[in-house]
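Listing S7. Sequence submitted for prediction.
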Amino acid sequence: MFNLEEELKKRFGNHIYTMEEEVTLEQAVVDMMKERNLHLTTAESCTGGAVASRIVNVPGASEVLGQGIVTYSNEAKQRYLSVREETLANYGAVSAASTEKPSSRNISSAAAAQKSANRQS
């Protein structure tokens, strides 16, 4: 007799994040990150913070999610994520070239700069 679950496991293997209906993608991500002692920082643009928003709704997410930043404008991408103006001009904000530049170090620096700016206000 054909077993759909076994066939899916055979075809997709490690690409399956859960076989339990009640486990959301964000819950699975948080659980896997906790198990592996990993931490998450997000840098979002077109999603407007939706990824971080889904993660923070998971109980215990604060153990893995340290911070997130939404850089919607090109100016914000340049200032907080060190995306070069030339890259944005040549390839556009929604391009692999523009999204490969940001790193956790840039985002951490951006968070520190934002805190400093908030204190001065």
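Caption to Listing S7: primary sequence and predicted structure tokens for the chain studied. The chain has a mean pLDDT of 86. Residues 56 and 62 are 7 Å apart (CA to CA).
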